Amino acid sequence: MSATVSPARIARSRATLEIKSYFRERDSLIFSFLFPIIMLGIFAVAFGGEDVGQDSGAPVDFAQYFLPGMVASGIMLVSFQTLAISLAVERDDGTLKRLRGTPMPAVSYFLGKVGMILVVGLSQIALLLAVAALAFGVELPAEPAKWLTFAWCYVLGTAGGAVLGIAYSSLPRSAKSASAVVVGPLIILQFISGVFFVFSDLPSWLQNVASVFPLKWLAQGMRSVFLPDGFEDLEVSGSWQHGPTALILSLWLIAGLVICVRTFRWQRTGEG
């Protein structure tokens, strides 16, 4: 009977299991799901009386300015961080090795992970936008073109974050070190990629370093969605750079796929 079950059906069942498991993990909910909302609330309360973008002609308050960064950060937390840590843990405790010995196709396992990320990611963003609009008065875009930009940024950012998370999961030596190895570098990227600070205010050398990584481009793409058009002139390049954003996010997606194929392991190093 197992031979008649399609990989797609197995992937759907696996995705359902992954979603249930994710929402049962309080640590994942706090650091991946609620973290952007908490940070947005902190910025909104701490800098509520100040505006950003006086030279744009249409300044906005801190809550609206940092919303795009929180959206981009949330995407990376749900995709990259969640997969990098969970796969490292599953490899260390033998879960991956046992799953590899079952009839379940490998593609179904990874599609189940991707399905979980899509559901959790969209739920997280929906809640973040609802809190921003209802609690902090952030105006959400009404133009279809902006939501189209949001869609391709979300797809490329989530897909890239997922494959990079799978690739990065081979780096931690054990489950105990996974959180430190994954979370530490990601926090640094958040600080230099325009998530917690106005990107154009950072030193030029930090801007150049951040431009190598996908989070900077994802945050810039989200700024083009949630900020007024006048803010385009305040970018370092004077443009939203949609073309380079799509290109660099796509290149990271391809690079992540190549690294995954070459380095992913179903069991700990040294096991036969």
From TrEMBL:
Provide a GO CC annotation, any one: ATP-binding cassette (ABC) transporter complex
InterPro entries in alphabetical order: ABC2_TM, ABC2_TM_bact-type, ABC_2_transport, Nod_factor_ABC_transporter
Where does it reside? Cell membrane; Membrane
- Pfam families attached to this UniProt entry: ABC2_membrane
Q: Which domain of life is it from?
A: Bacteria
Q: How does it sit in the membrane?
A: Multi-pass membrane protein
Q: Which family does it belong to?
A: Belongs to the ABC-2 integral membrane protein family.
Q: What is this protein called?
A: Transport permease protein
What is the scientific name of the source organism? Jiangella rhizosphaerae
